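Researcher: We're reviewing a set of sequences before deciding which ones to prioritize for further study. For each one, I'd like a predicted 3D structure that I can look through quickly. This is Alpha-hydroxy acid oxidase. If possible, include the structure in token form so it fits the rest of the review sheet.
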Amino acid sequence: MVDRQFPRPAELLELMQFKKPELDLKKRRLESALTIEDLRRIARRRTPKAAFDYTEGAAEGELSLARARQAFQDVEFHPSILKDVSTVDTSCQIWGGPSALPFGIAPTGFTRLMQTEGETAGAGAAGAAGIPFTLSTLGTTSIEGVKAANPTGRNWFQLYVMRQKEISYGLVERAAQAGFDTLFFTVDTPVAGARLRDKRNGFSIPPQLTLGTIVNAIPRPWWWYDFLTTPKLEFASLSATGGTVGDLLNAAMDPSIDYDDLAEIRALWPGKLVIKGVQTLEDAKTLTDHGVDGIVLSNHGGRQLDRAPIPFHLLPDVAREVGHHTEIAVDTGIMNGADIIAAYALGAKFTLIGRAYLYGLMAGGRAGVDRTIHILADQLVRTMKLLQVRTLDELTPAHVTQLTRLHPLHHTTTPIDA
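Model: Here's the predicted structure for Alpha-hydroxy acid oxidase, in token form for your review sheet.
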């Protein structure tokens, strides 16, 4: 038999203590997000379809992006035991300087399209968190504007070499004068990938009002209020074309760039030079022989060549072959702090987040970017403690098994350009 009694009023009061309601709607919205996927759902609700799809979309069938995200999910961790992990150190050194966390903000184009604070929010949040921020050539805030938003933190610049090379070289000089310490030379964009969502949405630069966009705007008045009451939305470094982003890339980018351009940029740039968009082991070896300071294994977030290699799958071979000679970073598909830890364990010295940062930006501006960083930092600290490692350098390939779904029928044994 269970002994029963009537509860005393004092006991009921203890059980009925209500949480104080949060009256700040933005703060309440962001605190409800516990994962990057949660931020993504909030961002989708708050952003017009064309702008959200520009961020969310990838090239053609979007297979590269889906495979990259799946690759991080297909990870098995192998924890140690009986280690003191009451405190862990998440800091690292990358390309000649510190970062409080093993990730930074990747270069993203036309960022004020997603939310009016744009790169200013990203740079400010990165500086507050002690991580690097990367400005895109197609950014919507100037080099000097990013420096003002992140005056004491690490700023990096991502470079496209354009047909009018004097424009590209001028940007290199401006970034150096503003104290940016690392240059990302992007090499995977001779032409634009086929970003079909933009074409289907009729998305143009600058955004133009149509019957569809007006209907889509009705439940999102805050976005349009920001859009219509803030400075004209345009690229900080380039003139708009009136067409899609793909049209702009095709008109501006130089498909003839080669290793001579790499040498010329090296001569212009006083800081660390990193090549972004490396997708084969052979190219990683060649670039290392050319003495670059780092490489970023990336398929451009799946936005260029669909069915491109999965950077996370390429990582172990590249780390084994050239990791002792140059510093390797990886991007594309990162949605969880555990993804970052898995990449570090397999040889990456750094990672970059693109869409994860933009989801936070669309969900809540600067506060949303802060939330993105907090979520990822919390996840990676918890993963480190559960793996029972105290520093990033204690992570090794023995901590991770990559579970593969796609097995090649054969391996290419001759160089691509043979």
